[in-house]
Design a protein that fits this description.
Length: about 270
């Protein structure tokens, strides 16, 4: 399955609820990064948030390798302005576990890079309910065995309350979604997608993880995509359901999706 770059495409490529899984697919080199993006928006994110760049000393060579890969002079901080995607570097530590050693994250989805830098994969993913039990061993194996050359990708999506490229809410979920109803869900709920890729850098051996963001109001998605989102939220396990604030919008989402289905012409 092709990942695509739009929210519509990524909703269909992403996991639709149920148990956590990597859901990886091969990505061609030509389809690796977003070909067209808003350079001004990208630059503004890093100028406004200097803490969006973190680089441990051991990641400097890998950062330069990333920049060279993108045809940019300098290191990771310069490279990120040449692409829409946020960039993270993970390298093997003394205990053979992979550690987040660098990141340039202009468009985070409710997480702070300074809180994650220097941590191993399992700690980076700690807020995700079920990660340790369902995904950790598979992800660790992938990072240990990933060869240079192939690129793998996956999609992830969230339902959020605003279309900001940086989604860092500070208010309580009950307040964040208080205005959402079945009638206005198409305009007040947004689907925020992450297009994630992994590849090993051939010179330094670091793993480069990219995160490309796409956001659309629910009402601009196809009825099939809306149905997939609603079904996915309904099937999300307890714990993760609460982490995604689903109890505060799930009923409105389900009602809106049902209404859209009724409006679909019979085939």
């Amino acid at each position: 399955m092709s990942l695509g770059f739009s929210a519509e495409e990524l909703v269909h490529a992403g996991r639709g609820g149920g148990a956590l899984r990597m859901g990886l697919s091969r990505v061609a080199e030509a389809d690796w990064l977003q070909p067209n993006f808003d350079k001004a928006e990208r630059t503004a994110a890093f100028e406004a948030h200097p803490d969006a760049v973190r680089l441990l000393p051991q990641a400097e060579a890998a950062g330069r390798e990333v920049a060279a890969l993108l045809g940019v002079e300098g290191g990771l901080a310069e490279a990120v302005r040449a692409c829409w995607e946020d960039l993270c570097l993970l390298q093997q530590g003394a205990a053979s576990e992979y550690i987040l050693t660098a990141g340039v994250v202009g468009f985070p989805t409710d997480w702070r890079l300074p809180d994650k830098i220097g941590l191993p994969l399992i700690a980076v993913h700690a807020p995700i309910h079920g990660y340790a039990e369902q995904l950790a061993s598979g992800v660790d194996h992938l990072f240990r065995t990933l060869p240079p050359g192939p690129i793998f990708g996956r999609a992830n999506w969230f339902v959020v309350a605003d279309p900001a490229w940086r989604y860092m809410p500070t208010n309580e979920p009950a307040d964040r979604f208080a205005h959402v109803t079945v009638a206005n869900a198409g305009e007040t709920l947004f689907v925020r997608c992450e297009r994630q890729t992994l590849r090993r850098l051939p010179e330094t051996g670091a793993v480069l993880f990219t995160i490309g963001i796409a956001v659309e109001p629910l009402g601009r998605l196809s009825t099939q995509a809306v149905r997939r989102v609603a079904d996915g939220i309904a099937a999300t396990a307890s714990g993760e359901h609460e982490r995604r604030a689903a109890p505060f919008y799930a009923e409105a989402l389900a009602g809106y999706a049902a209404g859209r289905m009724k409006m679909e012409p019979a085939t």
